Amino acid sequence: MYLETKRLYLRAPRPEDAAAYAAIHNSEFVLRYNAMLPTTPERMAQKFADPEYQKSAVFLEEKQSGALIGAIFMEEDSLRYGVDSVDLSYFIDFAYSRKGYMKEAMHALIAYLFESVKLECISCRAFAPNTASRALLKSLGFTENGIIPRCVKGYTGEIFDDVIHTLFPQNLK
């Protein structure tokens, strides 16, 4: 998949992205509210070679600088059965946060998923204290459906409540 927005290229991972990806992934800013462990460029280079990973990962490249600034992941929506749906997760480099890049990328990807893939709905989950992510989802038209208490253990051992969000095609803003 390849999409283009005003400021971004949304594209598949490339082998040369491994070091930049690992640096963003391993930042405290990203690890804090994602259920991930730190990684290495070598591990990521191996993952990038996996065809399934290539289908599920969308990397955000800033047009002006050519820098890798974040990623969005499409996974099975494990909360639904028999519904054409995916669960999206995402992160962005701190230097590019709160500047509209993730909203721009998510909007383009979501529009593509509804229009071209013909999904019936899209889910996202955000840790309860991650107010920036929850605000992003609301700005895109997602509805908060509920909270699963003490749902996900972060990399430091802290356990977070998880907030479930759903978006239907007619609600995309």
Please work out how many helical segments DSSP would assign.
Answer: 6
Unreliable stretches (pLDDT < 50, length at least 5) are none
How many distinct beta strands? 8
Biggest β-sheet, characterized? 8 strands, mixed
Query: What's the gyration radius in Å?
Result: 15 Å
Structural class assignment: alpha+beta
Share of helical residues: 25-40%
**N-to-C span:** 22 Å
Shape: globular
Mean pLDDT rating: 95
The SSE order reads: EEHHHHEEEHEHEE
What is the strand content?
A: 25-35%
| Spatial strand order of the main sheet | 1-2-3-4-5-6-8-7
Question: Describe it for me?
Answer:
The protein is α+β, with helices and mostly antiparallel strands and 173 residues long. The protein is 29% helix and 32% strand. It is globular. The two termini are 22 Å apart.
Q: What labels would you give this structure?
A:
alpha+beta; 173 residues; 29% helix; 8-stranded mixed sheet; single chain; globular
